[in-house]
Every structure is written in structure tokens, then in C-alpha cells.
Amino acid sequence: MISIDCFKAYDIRGELNSQLDESIAYRIGYAFAKELSAKTVVVGSDVRLTSVPLKLALSAGLIDGGATVTDIGMAGTEEIYFATKHLGVDGGIEVTASHNPKNYNGMKLVKAGSVPISGDTGLFAIKANAEQLDNKWVAERLAHYCNEQSIDAEAFYNGKAHVESSKLEGTGQYNEQSCMPEYISHILSYIDTANLTPLKLVVNAGNGAAGHVVDAMENAFKKSSIPVEFIKVHHQPDGTFPNGIPNPLLPENRADTAEAVKAHGADFGIAWDGDFDRCFLFDADGEFIEGYYIVGLLAEAFIEKNNDCKVIYDPRVYWNTEDIVARAGGTPIKSKTGHAFIKERMRKEDAVYGGEMSAHHYFRDFAYCDSGMIPWLLIAELVCTKKMPLADMVSERIKAFPSSGEINSKLKDADAALARVKAKYEPMAEVIDTTDGLGLEFGNWRFNLRKSNTEPVIRLNVETKNDIPLMEEKTAELLAAIRDE
User: Fold this and answer.
1) CB–CB of 84/73 below 8 Å?
2) Does residue 425 come out as left (phi exceeding 0), alpha (psi in the -120 to 50 range) or beta?
3) Is 87 helix (H, G, I), strand (E, B) or coil?
4) Taking the CB of residue 16, how many other CB atoms lie within 10 A of it?
5) Which residue among the candidates 23, 45, 51, 98 is catalytic per the annotation?
6) For residues 359 and 273, what is the distance between their CA atoms, to the nearest angstrom?
7) Is 118 a catalytic residue?
8) Contact 322/329 with Cβ under 8 angstroms?
9) CB 276 within 8 A of CB 208
10) How far is Cα 99 from Cα 48, in angstroms, rounded to an integer?
């Protein structure tokens, strides 16, 4: 028995060789197949140098666990979500570490129908089963598929696979299949492509997995004479990430997209993280648009398309979303932050759309899963049908409900900081919301304060009603209380 510590609350993420290697990947595959009694599983991998070796070792474990594996190749997480439902298989696994450093990798797991697997719904049971496997037996089974019995750390890190796909093909339980045509057709179904007027878009894949989907979409547009031009930045997949790890949520990672938008006179810009389950938007001036305001735009778009409908949102900032949904005749429903909670609530309510300020957007017809491609398509359609620049669509909403954005404070004692803020502000609050962290409202301003699940960090969000100076004042005041300054 061994101890595996790369299992998190919602996925698998760990440092290479110390927390995650081919042996552990094999164990996970075997335990996944057994825990789910899975007979068919689809797998994919991002562009990291170690993703293919891990995926093939994972596949070997799945096969030995009794499953037939369909490998869709290099893919983003949402392609696994789509393929799992489209192919009607028993589960899906994407090998990815998203925006983590290069020396990390991981996996995202779903059941049949792309239902997420979290700590509460089977992830930790898979962990326990993987830990119980006999070390000698695992080594023998992995060696059956490998050129070498031991794993060379340097070779592994540099992406030299020990498990070769040819070794798996001989089992009769491993096949490679592309779902790209069906996937492109599906994501384009969220808009009426006839509404698209000439657009010039900057697209920054960050050398991650998004580029091949952009290329496929570009070909589909050309075949249908749809007048959309793509200006491609850091487009080629490259697991060495020569331009840095793709994570546009960090302000220092936005300049290349912003500058390209301005240089090319684009209508707007799009940037993705490594596995492109999130997209980030820039207006025609290259200004980054907070994900919070995109949630409002997408909510309105779906209500217009579906008449009265339910929209799920997270509790960090929500006044803008609630206002838009209510005005449009929809029903706003608050959910705890996190993809497992949002997806579960969406299924329960049969909500057409769910959005988080972190740029995760969820869609009922996409198996209630998040997509980094569908949002920008909907925004492109809005820009064309409203004949209005993206900046104009969000400027009034930003003015009406200004927000601080999420501010993280790394502390020695996060619990003590939360207690300080609670003692000072809760007695004065008009509304107390504990859906996720501490949410307090005071008439024309409110805040949400949450602890990180994985590190001693407090996350603060502040918003006001039509009062930027008040938002700035309260943000500074709260940060002083949090940091005990």
C-alpha cells in the first residue's frame, strides 16, 4: 500500500515524480474502472510534455480494470465533457494541470453523462482503491506495457513515454477516435451563424490546447462563408510554454492579447487557459473585462433565447447578475462557488446557464458543463445583433455595479482574519449570507470573504451600487482589517 496525495476536492493535481507519475496514473486508471464498473472510458490530454505518458499509463490501468479506452488525442477538458456524453461512455478523464506550473500535471474525471466526480461523489474512493493496489503487481502490469521497468525521472519530465500507444493497440481495448466535427457542430449550435457580420477577433491560445479548435472553427466558417477573421497569438501548442503558462486571470499575462487587439484593430480579443475550459475577453481598446460582467451578458442572451429561464450564479459578486436576470424575466439562483456545486444545482433546477466570476460558464445543453468556446461565440453574436461594441455593452453595467475584483491576501492565520472581519462588520449588516464564506450587505454596498481550501489565503470581493469611490473606500478598509494593518 502507498499514500497518494495528488487527489484534491474536485480533481487530481500534483507535482511530477514526487506526487504524480506513470505508476500512480496506472493505479488511478485501474481504480477508476473498478469503482465505476466502467466498460467504456474516453481519455484525452493537454499539451504538457508529460500528459501523453500519463494518459497512456492511465489507459493501461483502465484496460486492466476491464474498460475499453477511446483516446481522442490532444484535447481541452470540454472536449472530454462533450465526448463522454456524445459517445455514451461510462466515464471520461482529461489529463491536464490547466494553469499550474510546468512541473505539475493532473486529471479531471467525470462519470457517464459528464457528471463530475468530486470528493463527495467517488473521487476519494478511487484514491483509496488506487492506494490499496499491491506495489509489485502494479510494477509488473505497468512493465507489461513499458519498455523499461523503472521510470527515469528526467525522461519522464521531458515527455518521453514509457508506455507506447502501440503497446495498447494490441490489447483490442484501445482505440483512437476524433470527435472534432461533432464537437464543432455542437458548439456552433448555440448561435445563429447567419447573425454574424464581419468580425476581426484576436485569439490567444497561450500555446495551450485551444488552437486546434480555433483552426477547426475557422475552417467551418470558411466553408459557410461566415465573415470572421482570426488574428492568432501564441497559437501553436507547445508544452514548454515559451510565452509562459497560459493563465489570463493574472494581470501580467494579458499584455500580448491586449496589444494584438489594438495593433490589428480587432473587434475584441479572447484568451484561454491551458485546457481552455475558461475564456477571458478584451474589448476593442484592449481592456480586460472582468468575468463577472460577462456572466450578466450571457444570462441575458440565454433568457432572450429561452424566454423565462433559470440562471445559476456564485455568491462572490452578484448584484449585476441578479438585476439583469430579473429585468429580463428570468429567475436568478445562488449557488456555492465551484464547478461541482454549480453543476449539481443546475441539474436540480434544470437551469439553462450558470456563470462564475472566475470565467467558468456552464450550459445545460453542454451536459451542464463548462466551456471556454461557447461564451465568446455568444458574445460575438451579441456584438453583431446589437450592432454595439463589447465595451459599450459592459460599460453601463460596470458603472451601475462597480466591483473590486477578487483580491487575495496570504496570511499566517486566515481564520483569525475572518473572525476579525466578522466581529467588526456582521453586527451592522442588513443581510447575512453564508452560502459560501461570509457575505454581508449594507444597503448600497456588500462584500464576500472566503478562505481558500488549499492555502492560508483570504479572498475578498466588494461591490457597490453606482458608487466607485465607495467601492474603493470599503475595499481599502476591509483589506486593512483582513491584514490587521
Assistant:
1) no
2) alpha
3) coil
4) 21
5) 98
6) 10
7) no
8) no
9) yes
10) 11
Task: Give the CB-side neighbour count of residue 138, counting CA atoms within 13 A.
Answer: 26
d(CA 464, CA 469): 9
| First-residue to last-residue Cα distance in the chain | 48
Place of cell 479572498: 459
The confidence score (pLDDT) of residue 151 equals 55
Q: What is the largest CA-CA distance in the chain?
A: 69
Confidence (pLDDT) at 156? 67
How big is the chain by its Cα radius of gyration, in Å?
A: 23
Q: How many CB atoms lie within 10 A of CB 132?
A: 11
**Considering Cα of 440, then 441, then 445, then 446, what sign does the dihedral take?**
positive
The reply to whether domains 12-178 and 407-483 share a CATH topology is no
Give the residue ranges of the chain where pLDDT is below 50: none
**Per CATH, domain 181-289 is 3.40.120.10:** yes
Is residue 71 within 8 Å of residue 59, measured between CB atoms?
yes
Which is it for strands 268-272 and 438-441: parallel, antiparallel or unpaired? unpaired
CATH number, span 407-483 = 3.30.310.50
Residue 399's pLDDT is what? 96
As a whole number of angstroms, the distance between CA 70 and CA 108 comes to: 16
CATH assignment of 12-178?
A: 3.40.120.10
Q: How far apart are CA 293 and CA 299, in angstroms?
A: 10
Residue 108 and residue 88 in contact, taking contact as beta carbons nearer than 8 Å:
no
Give the DSSP letter of residue 146.
Answer: B
Residue 354, strand partner residues: 312, 362
HEC readout, 268-304? EEEEECCCCCCEEEECCCCCEECHHHHHHHHHHHHHH
Amino acid found at 397: R
Query: What is the residue extent of each domain of the chain?
Result: 12-178, 181-289, 407-483
Q: Which three cell numbers stand for residue 223?
A: 466553408
Q: State pLDDT tens for residues 10-42.
A: 899 999 989 999 999 999 999 999 999 999 999
In the prediction, which pLDDT does 216 show? 98
- pLDDT score recorded for residue 439: 97
As a whole number of angstroms, the distance between CA 258 and CA 146 comes to: 45
Q: State phi, psi for 438 to the nearest 5 degrees.
A: -110, 115
- pLDDT at residue number 113: 97
Cα separation, 454 vs 353, whole angstroms: 28
**Is residue 333 within 8 Å of residue 312, measured between CB atoms?**
yes
Residue 377: per-residue pLDDT? 98
